[in-house]
């Protein structure tokens, strides 16, 4: 299984990547939204792990762009936001499915 991890925190990305690779997944990493979007649009992935708080382009913008470009790869969203801050974002996420 080929996974794209879009996460700007290098320590977090390294931890997740290492864990997935120990389970024999192939993992590519992008450290900002623009690079992650480019990688998702130009390569095939079985899963995208997407942080919401990214430099250059936030995770919701990346996800909207992918769906607009007919990229229907499953996306697992990571975030450090607390639930109260997610209410508005959550309604946007539901619309993207």
Automatic annotation (TrEMBL):
InterPro entries: CheY-like_superfamily, Sig_transdc_resp-reg_receiver, WalR-like. GO terms for cellular component: cytosol; protein-DNA complex. GO terms for biological process: regulation of DNA-templated transcription. The modification 4-aspartylphosphate is found at residue 51. This is Response regulator receiver domain-containing protein. It comes from Kryptobacter tengchongensis. SUPFAM superfamilies: CheY-like. GO terms for molecular function: phosphorelay response regulator activity; transcription cis-regulatory region binding. It comes from the Bacteria. Keywords: DNA-binding, Phosphoprotein, Transcription, Transcription regulation, Two-component regulatory system. Signal peptide: none annotated. Residues 2-97 form the Response regulatory domain.
């Amino acid at each position: 299984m080929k996974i794209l991890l879009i996460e700007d925190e290098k320590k977090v990305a390294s931890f997740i990547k290492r864990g997935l690779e120990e389970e024999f997944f192939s993992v590519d990493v992008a450290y900002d939204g623009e690079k992650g979007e480019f990688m998702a649009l130009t390569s095939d992935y079985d899963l995208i792990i997407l942080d919401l708080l990214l430099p250059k382009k936030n995770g919701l913008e990346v996800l909207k762009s992918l769906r607009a470009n007919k990229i229907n790869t499953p996306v697992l969203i990571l975030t450090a936001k607390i639930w109260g801050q997610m209410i508005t974002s959550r309604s946007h996420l539901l619309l993207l499915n």
